[in-house]
Hints:
By secondary structure, the protein is mostly helical. It contains six helices and two strands.
Amino acid sequence: MEDHVARLSAVGNQPAPAGDDPPTPQLCECGCGRPAPISPYSSRRHGYIKGQPTRFVRGHATRGRQHSDVARKKISASLRGRKVSEETRKKISAAKRGWNPTPDQRKRNSAARLGKMVGREHPAWKGEAVGYGGLHSWVARHKTKTGVCEDCGSNVGTKRPSGTQWANISGEYRRDLGDFRELCARCHWHFDRGETPRPRRSVRLS
């Protein structure tokens, strides 16, 4: 870093002289493994020297930093109600097009997110205001199926669409795992209508 500042002080805001050797390739200092871009201009404010690699890929300088709770609230308040224009959306899409993280980067990203942004820690958590699909997804993540219907006892497995399903007992769709039963599709259909299914007929093979 000191060498970088010294070179910047010596060069100032003047462009690098023509005919110099090409800059030595460098990787982004955040550890992502991507090559650092070559700066098209010099900037004392940002620490850029024209024709030399920057320290970070754009947007990577703050990776790994943790904001305080006060800072998080200020950022949230400043972004609340902000809408991204269609032109900006296209620019973001074009910037991301064609870039795929390496397997090592995928593993690091997965490890960094493991156990975070889950349940009540997720900003989109709705609590009891969850919808039908979201509630069933929550039950499927936290309750294990056996593949056996609790009413008729048939073993239909868990594979959709013929496997067992989670049927809500109270009809109120509360976020309560005890309020769901594992039924086959046939018993689930009759259960939701308050009917008693007829006994299954055995099939004779002639």
